[in-house]
Amino acid sequence: MAPTKEKAAASPKVVKKAKKMHRFRNPLLADGVRRFSKGKVVQRKKMFALKSLKKVRVEKPKVAITVVKKIGGAKNGGERKVMLRKNKSYLPTKNIVRKRVGKRCFRNHKRNTRKTLKTGKVLILLAGRHKGKRVVLLKILQSGLLLVTGPFALNSCPLRRISQNYVIATKTRLNVKKVKLPKHINDGYFRRVVKKKNTRAERDIFAEKEEKYVPSEQRKADQKKVDAAVMKVIAAHKESKVIKRYLKSMFSLRSNQFPHRMQF
């Protein structure tokens, strides 16, 4: 066979390096979910664009901060530098203190009471001096407390306030629509006035006695007026005798009796 000529080795191709483009990378985290939002991407692109612009500095005139004042006295140096604007002695922790809508005065908060607590219902008291007694609910006050009465003639429970947390509502209800309460019976009506003691005057410590609470004549008159109206409502009920016994009786639990399994 005729000798074949070997092909000349091909010269290596020169690959031109592409210029690096400084682009803002936004990698794909999941299908259709990028690392940065569209707004963030635009913000970052603007930042890169600003770097290329040449900043022109505007020289501001220098303003003196201090003033040299002359001071009298042989040993005071004669002169002293004083700040034109003194620094604040009190610095707030926040630059802008905004008023919070959620924080309002506690007495103006909305009070939520249980649906079972309706006027005229017979309640069982679970706390306080009169715990275990059955009372009649007259009104829900602005503070959220319940205004109740015994009446006093049946179980010696006077007009008083109690929280709904310490009360069990029963199914027994009286028609108290005709009972008109005096307008001055509110939360302020039950506040006790504490007399201020004169600490400067000389007094015998052992001779002093603790002042006991005594209801005022106004309180006694209001109690009689309200109880008379409630007793009329009880007398007008079909089962007035049963209700009177029911209000006189005390609530108590025996062994193997659980309140969450009972119907009141």
Summary keywords:
single chain, 264 residues, alpha+beta, 5-stranded antiparallel sheet, two-stranded antiparallel sheet, 4 helices, 18% helix
| Biggest sheet overview | 5 strands, antiparallel
How big is the Rg? 43 Å
**Helix share, percent:** 10-25%
Please give the alpha-carbon distance between the first and last residues. 121 Å
Strand order of the largest sheet: 8-7-6-5-9
Shape call: flat
Q: What is the count of DSSP helices, taking H or I runs of 4+ residues?
A: 4
Low-confidence stretches: none
What does this structure look like?
This protein is an alpha+beta fold. Helices cover 18% and strands 16% of the residues. It contains four helices and nine strands. It has helices spanning 38-52, 152-155, 217-236, 240-248; strands at residues 28-30, 33-34, 66-70, 79-83, 121-125, 134-140, 146-149, 160-162, 167-173. Strands 8-7-6-5-9 form a five-stranded antiparallel sheet. It has a two-stranded antiparallel ribbon with strand order 1-2. Strands 3-4 form a two-stranded antiparallel ribbon. A hairpin with an 8-residue loop joins strand 3 (66-70) and strand 4. It is flat and about 110 Å long. 10% of the residues are buried. The mean pLDDT is 83.
